[in-house]
Structure formats: C-alpha cells, structure tokens
C-alpha cells in the first residue's frame, strides 16, 4: 500500500472529494502526464489512466489534469483506470502559453514551494528570476532561488550585488551536487508532505538536484556536452517523485520563455520594491514614467533604486497589463457567447 499522506493528501482534499459526485471511487495524484494518458499514484499502486470523453472534449487545455493534480478515477483491469473527475486546484504554477495572448498553461498543481534553479555560469539571469517570482506570488506559492553549480567558480560579490533586492524577498541557496553540505541545507528546507516544483532553463541541473535530494537516481540525466562544457537538457516531461523522509518533488523541462499570466501587478510592485517609493508619489495614479513628483523616478535618479530593476519593472508591468486586458476581453466574449446560447435554448424550449 502507498501512503498518500506522504504525497500531500490531507483532510481538506478529503472533504473536496466527498463533495464530488464520484466521492466513492478511488483517488490519486498525477505523477506524469503523457500525450494521451496519465500515470496516477493511488493507495493501491500506480495506474495508467485515460480521461472520459466528457473531460477530454468538455474542458480547455488549462482545465485538464497536470502534474500534481488530485483526480478521481475508476480502476479497471490491472493497473488501468479512467479519470472521471478532478479535485479543485490550489496554488497552480502556470505561465502564458507560447504563441497566445491570454491562454494559460498549467505546469504543476498543489505546489507549496517553487525552486527557481539557475546555474552560476552564462545561464545566471536575475531578470528571469524576477519573472518567475511574480508568477509564483500570484498563486501564493513560496519562491526560492537556487543558484546551482557553485563548484564551477563564480564572482560571488557580483552575483550578490545583482540579487540584493531578491534576497530581501525570498530565500536563496547556493548548491552543488558535488558538495553534500549544500544539498543537505536544501533538503532541510523541504518539509514532509510539501510539494516543491523545480523550474528553470535547460542545462541548469534541475534533474541532478532532484536525484541528489533523493540520494538516488530517480530521474534520467545527461553528462556534460563536450562542445559547450554545459549540462545537456534531459527532461522532456513534468515528473513527480517522492523524496525519502518526506517531500514531493516535481521536475520540469527547461523553458526558454516564461510568459507572465498575471491579472494584477500588485505582486510585481512588491517584489521589485516599488511599493514603498510609490506611496510617496505626488499623484495616487502615478505610472512612474514621466509624471512630476514621482518618488520612484527620484529614487532611480539618486541611485537608491537600481535602474535595471526599474526597467525590468516597466517591462514586466507592460506584459502584465497586456495579459490582463486580453484576459478581460476574452472573458467578456465568453460571457456574451454564453448569454447567446442561453437565449437560443429559451427560444427552442418556447417552440
């Protein structure tokens, strides 16, 4: 038998299951999403499950199960099942779907912490970390910056200067799979029953970190590329594994682009430390671009607020506003369409 409490099952989830029409069936957590099926960890083992037709064709891509979701399914045969329902999500890490204006893609669900992994080589980019942080705060997921491959050697003073505003906001860990003490500190930060997702670019060592935390090879990794001297991308899917002693780890494929899917820029102001200055602006609706009496611009000109942080703020704010406006327009159209369908049904019933 598998103890699902170790995978994060709790009384709140149990209550949600009892409210489902299918509350008497088997529940489990999605460990891997394949192209046409799902691997689900349940109390009696791991099942390979497909969706019912109603779920497959009656939901948007974002509403379909993703890694970390809790589902209810009907087992049949040996190790097979049909997913009939999904419990309401909370703390879902998502991003704007590539090639779209306001479509969201779910990366992992029921996440407690997200480790933003960057390697201390050419991959290090504090602007990318800021982007991840904003999205995580949107869903009340605790962001953690993990600066990996410290064994490569790096200019620590330069790095610390660049992430000074980040360290005031979130925990930061320096790690290397070749230095066990750094892995031990990271492992101590993961509590039993917590779910942690690893995000970052290809080649930063996410899978290797997961293996080191589990103290065994649970995920496939590649060696160092002879041509670039960097780790080669291995993960091609989002995969959930259980860490000995507690903690659920979700590895994700590397992403080149992480588009924000945020409706409110409030978290952005807080993360980039704009809020304190903005409160002193002459105008309450100040946009911090060219308004007289703008305390944010004054802080930039005096060197109190880093200019690169300020420019990052403007860029991310534009992206947030664009997504929010597009999302609002999309909802407006969906509401109008639903209203039209209801009117057609009423006419049909009348005749």
UniProtKB/TrEMBL annotation:
Residue ranges constituting the EngC GTPase domain according to the UniProt record: 109-256
Residues that, per the record, bind GTP: 148-151, 200-208
GO CC annotations on file: cytoplasm
Molecular function via GO: GTP binding; GTPase activity; metal ion binding; rRNA binding
One Pfam family of this chain: RsgA_GTPase
Cofactor needs: Zn(2+)
Keywords per UniProt: Cytoplasm, GTP-binding, Hydrolase, Metal-binding, Nucleotide-binding, Ribosome biogenesis, RNA-binding, rRNA-binding, Zinc
UniProt keyword annotation of Membrane present: no
Enzyme class of the recorded protein, top EC level: hydrolase
GO biological-process terms attached to the record: ribosomal small subunit biogenesis
Residues that coordinate or bind Zn(2+): 281, 286, 288, 294
Cofactor binding mode and count: Binds 1 zinc ion per subunit.
Record's subcellular location: Cytoplasm
Ranges of residues in domain CP-type G: 90-258
E.C. designation(s): 3.6.1.-
Family: Belongs to the TRAFAC class YlqF/YawG GTPase family. RsgA subfamily.
Matching PANTHER family: SMALL RIBOSOMAL SUBUNIT BIOGENESIS GTPASE RSGA
HAMAP family according to UniProt: GTPase_RsgA
Function as written in the Swiss-Prot or TrEMBL entry: One of several proteins that assist in the late maturation steps of the functional core of the 30S ribosomal subunit. Helps release RbfA from mature subunits. May play a role in the assembly of ribosomal proteins into the subunit. Circularly permuted GTPase that catalyzes slow GTP hydrolysis, GTPase activity is stimulated by the 30S ribosomal subunit.
Subunit description: Monomer. Associates with 30S ribosomal subunit, binds 16S rRNA.
Protein name: Small ribosomal subunit biogenesis GTPase RsgA
Gene behind this protein: rsgA
């Amino acid at each position: 038998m598998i103890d699902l409490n170790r995978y994060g099952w709790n009384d709140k989830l149990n209550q949600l299951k009892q409210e489902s029409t299918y509350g008497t069936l088997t529940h489990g957590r999605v460990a891997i999403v394949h192209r046409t099926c799902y691997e689900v960890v349940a109390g009696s083992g791991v099942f390979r499950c497909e969706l019912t037709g109603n779920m497959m064709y009656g939901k948007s891509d974002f509403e379909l199960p993703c890694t970390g979701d809790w589902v209810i399914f009907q087992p049949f045969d040996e190790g097979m099942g049909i997913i009939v329902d999904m419990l309401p999500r909370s703390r879902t890490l998502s991003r704007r779907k590539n090639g779209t204006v306001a479509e969201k893609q779910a990366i992992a669900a029921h996440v407690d912490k997200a480790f933003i992994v960057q390697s201390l080589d050419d991959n290090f980019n504090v602007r990318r970390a800021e982007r991840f942080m904003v999205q995580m705060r949107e869903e009340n997921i605790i962001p953690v910056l993990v600066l990996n491959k410290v064994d490569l050697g790096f200019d620590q003073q330069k790095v610390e200067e660049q992430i000074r505003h980040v360290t005031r906001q979130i925990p930061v860990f320096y790690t290397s799979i070749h230095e066990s003490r750094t892995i031990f500190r990271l492992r101590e930060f993961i509590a039993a029953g917590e779910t942690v997702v690893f995000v970052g670019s290809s080649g930063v060592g996410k899978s290797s970190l997961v293996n080191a935390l589990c103290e065994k090879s649970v995920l496939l990794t590649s060696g160092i590329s002879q041509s670039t001297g960097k780790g080669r991308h291995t993960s091609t899917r989002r995969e959930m594994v259980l860490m000995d002693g507690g903690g659920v780890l979700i590895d994700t494929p590397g992403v080149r682009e992480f588009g924000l899917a945020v409706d409110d820029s409030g978290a952005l102001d807080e993360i980039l430390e704009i809020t304190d200055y903005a409160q002193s602006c002459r105008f309450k609706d100040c946009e911090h671009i060219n308004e007289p009496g703008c305390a944010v611009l004054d802080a930039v000109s005096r060197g109190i607020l880093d200019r690169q942080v300020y420019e990052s703020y403007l860029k991310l704010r534009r992206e947030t506003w664009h997504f929010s406006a597009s999302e609002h327009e999309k909802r407006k159209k969906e509401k109008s369409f639903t209203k039209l369908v209801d009117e057609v049904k009423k006419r049909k019933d009348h005749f």
